[in-house]
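Quick one, probably user error.
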């Protein structure tokens, strides 16, 4: 019999734990966490869940203020736009993009891409370029919601 056990999925020799194990036994140890060299474990910034918690209420408050006060809701914009810009700065930092890309919010087509990436992208999205399960589920659910809304609007509208 060799020094590695058939039951050890990683074939790692057992560490000494005070002499209580027999020589030659192995214990399973988890594989190391794979990480690209030079990549920080967490890029910092605002995570997706926290962004959702602040973005949607802020958007609702801005919409209600505009609907209630019309164009005289300038005070609401003066208060909330810096907060929204700070949120996008933090979220872009978490995604691995340059935070100054938050300036794309004023560009008509680019702001759609920016908001979608900030809402659905996982950490380090700039490096990975793939959505995770949550991002895919949100996009599919959103598309199904739009289709359902159009069907209901055509039926009852």
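Nope, works fine. Designed sequence:
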């Amino acid at each position: 019999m060799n020094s590695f056990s058939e039951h050890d999925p990683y074939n790692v020799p057992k560490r000494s734990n005070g002499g209580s194990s027999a020589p030659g036994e192995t214990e399973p140890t988890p594989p190391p966490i794979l990480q690209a060299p030079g990549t920080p474990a967490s890029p910092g910034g605002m995570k997706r869940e926290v962004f959702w918690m602040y973005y949607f209420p802020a958007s609702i408050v801005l919409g209600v203020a505009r609907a209630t006060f019309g164009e005289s809701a300038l005070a609401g914009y003066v208060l909330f736009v810096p907060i929204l810009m700070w949120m996008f700065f933090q979220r872009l930092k978490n995604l691995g993009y340059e935070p100054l890309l938050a300036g794309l919010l004023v560009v008509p087509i680019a702001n759609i891409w920016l908001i979608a990436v900030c809402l659905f992208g996982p950490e380090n999205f700039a490096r990975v370029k793939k959505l995770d399960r949550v991002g895919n589920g949100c996009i599919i659910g959103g598309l199904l919601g739009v289709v359902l809304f159009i069907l209901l609007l055509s039926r009852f509208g």
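The helical segments are 48-69, 74-95, 110-120, 125-128, 133-156.
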